[in-house]
Design brief:
Elements lengths: L2 E6 L11 E6 L9 E2 L26 E5 L7 E3 L9 E2 L1 E5 L4 E4 L14 E3 L3 E3 L3 E4 L8 E4 L2 E4 L6 E5 L3 E3 L4 E3 L15 E2 L12 E2 L29 E6 L2 E4 L2 E3 L17 E5 L2 E3 L3 E3 L10
Parallel strand pairs: 3-4, 4-7, 5-8, 6-9, 7-10, 8-11, 9-14, 10-15, 11-16, 14-19, 15-20, 16-21, 17-18, 19-22, 20-23, 21-24
Antiparallel strand pairs: 1-2, 12-13
Length: 294
């Protein structure tokens, strides 16, 4: 069991502190029924490195535990490297203040190899954050029948859960600012609707019924090299056989600068397919306003 003791320091730690300091000793025995993330601060932070795990490189049958008691290191799940799988049996994330970044790719991206992360059982994100890599430098657009399509979109968060998905209070799935910046010309596509002046050359892209695209940034006024462009939100797709409980947040918000004219960004996309969705948290794919238009 955990133990608590009181240590008295004469004079206190500083002039504003009391003399009594409470120290809690935690029983942090390594669970033997789970493969635990144990990467130290000097490690590469890659899930494909066997030394970062209590039982070596994860297998599809492993129950994964990411617990801040054993590691506070950020993780990148780079499936395919060194045989790291695209699926695990279950996922528990707790006492963790860092981020797990998944290198999942859109199935439409040429050469994509890791398009879906699967958790066969329950997935419990009790603390910390999930995200995907940013698409900022992967912009590509071509016109087709007055509809802009993004041919170079690459990174997304595409997850399938066989049981329930819990995003607890304080935890998040957050792909804010993980979409596209503005390409630096006036004829950029706009996600979810026309841009402010309804310019026909900026035809909207995306789907209302199956939203799964990154958002697009707006170029700041007079800036042709997109150096002060906003960056759109990323793309999240969650396919859950059971219930999705969101007491924390799921976000794909556009990331811009409110103080720079036309440096806003559209939100990205959040697509949830589940038996039931509940909770007291927030699901948000808002655009970022600017000082020019809100």
């Amino acid at each position: 069991e955990d133990a608590e003791m009181t240590v008295s320091i004469p004079g206190g730690i500083s002039k504003d502190d009391t003399q009594a300091v409470t120290v809690t000793i935690i029983n942090a025995s390594m669970p033997t029924d789970k493969n635990v993330w144990i990467a130290n601060s000097g490690s590469d932070g890659l899930a494909s490195t066997a030394a970062n795990w209590s039982k070596g490189l994860p297998k599809e049958t492993d129950d994964i535990l990411v617990d801040g008691l054993f590691s506070a290191r950020k993780m990148t799940w780079d499936a395919g490297v060194n045989g790291l799988p695209t699926a695990v049996a279950s996922w528990t994330q707790t006492n963790y203040a860092e981020t797990v970044e998944f290198n999942t790719e859109f199935p439409t991206y040429v050469g994509a190899t890791f398009t879906l992360f699967t958790v066969s059982g329950n997935c419990e994100i009790m603390s910390g954050k999930w995200t995907h890599r940013g698409n900022y430098n992967n912009y590509g657009a071509e016109k087709e029948s007055n509809t802009s399509k993004l041919s170079s979109k690459r990174w997304c968060l595409n997850v399938q859960v066989g049981g329930d998905l819990i995003v607890a209070a304080g935890a998040s799935i957050d792909v804010t600012g993980k979409g596209f910046g503005h390409p630096g010309n006036q004829s950029a596509p706009c996600y979810g609707g026309y841009c402010y002046n309804k310019d026909q050359s900026c035809a909207p892209y995306g789907s209302i019924t199956e939203p799964f695209d990154p958002g697009m940034g707006c170029r700041s006024q007079g800036d042709q090299n997109k150096s002060r462009s906003g960056i759109g939100g990323g793309a999240v797709k969650l396919s859950v056989a059971g219930e999705v409980v969101v007491d924390g947040s799921i976000s794909a918000i556009g990331n811009g600068d409110l103080n720079v004219a036309r440096s806003g960004a559209t939100g990205g996309s959040i697509w949830i397919d589940a038996k039931q969705i509940s909770g007291t948290g927030k699901i948000d794919a808002s655009a970022c306003p600017t000082s020019y238009y809100t």
